[in-house]
């Protein structure tokens, strides 16, 4: 792109170069749309660099079956999506989808959770493949499991990836599809004739017909002047990783997984501390102690790295996809499970952004439930 010209042009602008923005840009470019993607510098908050790498179904949408359907639609698309990424970029994201666990240290919590999943299964017409495993059954699947573990729920649709390779692959894929990358912070999105003018720090102005704010924790600042509420907040998660070890864990759980390169990843906390992504000894110690109760061999493993990152959390924890009622053509998209939903964002959401609701409706998903109209003004 020629940054010396005063006003550049594309049909779509995506603001935000995390996984959500890149997946949307990839899907739009694959449909033949001209797309420019603005992203702030590397010192920005970026959950896409600090996440746990789960493509996770269980537990999602217990209080909103439409979210469970959306999550499952994405999980079902993931294999094909991962293959496409590898074919186009040569980067493997190391997807495995052989099921995953929630592990419980007490029977009461295990059965309470199983009850919640039974209700969700009913709401989904009986199609929700999970099993409750007692201690002996989980020990058979995971010989390293500790004696304090009461049992686990195995959901057969859960899986995981290598999140850093995925981030590399998706940014590479958007480049190959011709998305124009502009590494500048957007300071304002101004409604204009036939669309919007994107104002960015030191990069002149850019005109587009449609703009999608997918800039994580930066969405509220840009979105509110466009009439959006954007009820999201940061929530810190801390994650630990051990030295590389031989294969010891068969399937991931929502707290512990062995990554394709051998390290055991342990996470993630959920802390309401505002815009603070630092690590703390106290939480690191809690995460490690919990992990050792589940897998005692971890007592002897060396931790090599830990980090904190900020989730983008809506008021009710579910995604928000909204077009501006004041300025049609302006949208925002936000969620706290952008890895799980990546395939849906690349394969299904772009049709909606192009005005075609039928692709998502065919999946049996009542998409309007994701609008921000579900939140009261406050
Ligand atoms: C600890 C942790 C564990 C997680 N584990 C999982 C998991 O296992 N599975 C899962 O599905 N999800 C997981 N997540 C959530 C997942 O990482 C996020 O949903 C996802 O990364 C969100 O991507 P995003 O693109 O919306 O936001 P981000 O990754 O935060 O990216 C936002 C981008 O917008 C840019 N930006 C912001 N403001 C502006 C502006 N004004 N102009 C230009 N650019 C701007 C920033 O530079 C940044 O690149 C986890 C998150 C955390 C923190």
What does this entry look like structurally?
There is one protein chain. The protein is α+β, with helices and mostly antiparallel strands and 378 residues long. It folds into 3 domains: 169 residues, 3-Layer(bba) Sandwich (FAD/NAD(P)-binding domain); 57 residues, no CATH class; 83 residues, D-Amino Acid Oxidase, Chain A, domain 2 (2-Layer Sandwich). The protein is built from 10 helices and 17 strands. The strands form 4 sheets. Strands 1, 2, 8, 9, 10, 11, 16 and 17 form an 8-stranded mixed sheet that branches. A 4-stranded antiparallel sheet has the order 13-14-12-15, covered by helices on one side. It has a 3-stranded antiparallel sheet with strand order 4-6-5. Strand 16 and strand 17 form a beta hairpin. The longest helix is centred in the first third of the chain and has 25 residues. The radius of gyration is 21 Å and the shape is globular. The two termini are 41 Å apart. The model has no long low-confidence stretch (mean pLDDT 95).
Attribute tags:
378 residues, alpha+beta, FAD/NAD(P)-binding domain, D-Amino Acid Oxidase, Chain A, domain 2, 8-stranded mixed beta sheet, 4-stranded antiparallel beta sheet, 10 helices, 29% helix, globular, binds flavin-adenine dinucleotide
